[in-house]
Amino acid sequence: MQPMAAATIAGTADSRFAGLRDVFAANFASGLEHGGAVAVVLDGKPVAEFWGGYADAARTRPWRRETLINVWSCTKGVVALAIAMLVERGKLDYAAPVARWWPEFAAGGKEQITLDQVLSHQAGLNGLSVAMDEAGLLAWDPYVEALARMPPLWAPGSRSIYHALSYGHLAGEVLRRVDGRSVGRFLAEEIARPLDADFFVGLPEREEHRVAEMIEGPKASDWVAYVLSTAFPHSCANPTPVALAPNQRAWRAAEIPGGNGQASATGLAKIYGMLAAGGGTMIRRQSIAEAARPRVRGIDESFGTPTAFAAGFQIDNPLTGKAAFGHSGWGGSYGFADPEARLGFAYVTNRMLGFDDGIDPRRKALIDAVYACL
Known about the structure:
Low-confidence stretches: none
Distance between the termini: 33 Å
Radius of gyration: 19 Å
Largest sheet: 7 strands, antiparallel
C-alpha cells in the first residue's frame, strides 16, 4: 500500500488533545492506514474526534464521522456490558451455571459451566464438534443448538482459550433466554439508543450506505489460520470467518455478537466514556467494577501469549492504565475505558493488518498520544 502523505484528516479536539491529529495523520503517511477514525471521551464529554482516508478500496468515498466499520471482537466488550446490566438487574448471576437459564445447555456434561467461565473463555467451547457452515452461524439457532448439544472440548475452568466466535452466541443466547430480546435488539434499545451511539449488531438495511469496505492487509488472515490450527480440534467442521466477510450484506445483517458489530469511533468511544465516568443512569459504578474484576490470567494456548480477562472484557493491556478494560478487534480496531483516568477511547479502521505477536503500531501511537495529553 502506498503512503497517503496528503490524506485529508477532519475533526476537532480540545486544545489539550490537538496533537492527536498529527499522530493520526502519521499513520496514513507511514502507509499503514487506509481509512479510519479515533475518538476520545474524558469525564463523559467528547474531547477529540478525528477521521480520515477512504471508506472504500478504490478511494472514491472519503471516510466521514458517521462511517461505520465492522469492529470484529470489539463487539465482545459491548456484549459484556449488556450482560453486566442484566446481572445488576438480578436476571443473571456471574457465578451461576448457564444451564439455569438455558436448560438444554446442560447436555454433554456442561451442567456446571458458569456464566463467568463463558465470558472469560474458560468454558471449553471454543469450537464446535459437529460440522457447521457459515450459514448456520448467521442463522443463529443451528449454531447455538450445536453448542448446547456438544460436550466441552476440554475441562471447563482448566484454562482459557479464546472463544473467537462462540463467545457471542453463548452470551447472546443466555441474554435472549432471560430478557426475551435478541442481543442485537438489546444493544440497540438499552445501550446504543440511550447514548446516541452508533453501534449495531444486526445492521438495519437503512444504515447500509454508511458502511466502509473492509480491506485485507498483510498477515491479516494469519491470526485465524493460527487459531484454527492450534485450538480447534475440529477446525474443518467450524465456520471460518474471512477478513472480507463484512463486505457482504448477509454478514452485516446477521447477529454475530462475537465479531460483527458495526460501529463508528465516536459511537464506541461514547460507550466506553460512559463506563469510565461511572455509568451514569445506565449502570452503577459498583456493577462496572464487578464486570471489570479479573477472572483469569495465564497463557492462551491458541496464541501462546499471556491472556487476562474480566467478565468479557480484556484487561492488563500494556498500552493502557492498570485499571483499564475493553476489547480489541481483529486487524486493528480497539475500544477501552480507564476509570482512573476517566477516559474512554476508540479507534476503528478498515485496513486489517497482522503483526505476529507484536502490537499494532497504529493503535499504540494513538493510545500513547492520548495518555501523553492527560
